[in-house]
Please model this.
Amino acid sequence: MLLYTYIILLVITSIGILVGIKLSLRVPNKIKIISSISLVILLLRYISLFIMIFQENIKYMYMLESFYFLYFVCIPIFGVICLYILLRNDNINFKYVVLISFLYIIMYFIWVLRASVKIILMNNYNLGYAMNLKNNLWYVDIIYLFINVAFLIVTVNIFNKDRSDKVGGTLIIFASLFTIVIIMLPYLFNNIIPQYCMGELIWVIALDYCLSKTVKRPGKRVKSGK
Model:
């Protein structure tokens, strides 16, 4: 039963990613570039998760190392894009957001290529394999935790402003809170689902919603920032 739940979760999130990629093709160019790239990158992670369920030969798992931890890249970029759209601040130069995002992606691949990982069979072996960092796993989780805490704090401040997008703000708050809880759970209890997929799903929904608010419509000019 848990296996089917896990697969359904992966499928739903993958569909959400594909919807986001489709929306990305219709948003202002500056948002289009970074949103579409980050969504494609996350899709690669989910393809690798499917492979780790159904592939039984462990030697192939090491080929997926670069893709397995891609949530650490994509979710922060999703959060920045969502906040940029919700802030509706033309004084923010989005070129810097794009530049920092690309540097962040490059830094990730440099880090992951140098990192040592161990591949384990999940306690529920039907769920396939998972990867853990051999050293400093807590360090990565703490960074990911604080990134989500930062998004939560900023979004709450935006949410309290007049004319703020309450739906978008609620989605980001919920995504941040859910991700924070999921990060902490494995340190308190046995991990039921071996990934941060629930948090990622809500982040994908939040991004899809925010992108839908900036979709170019005939006869309507959408501001994309500087």
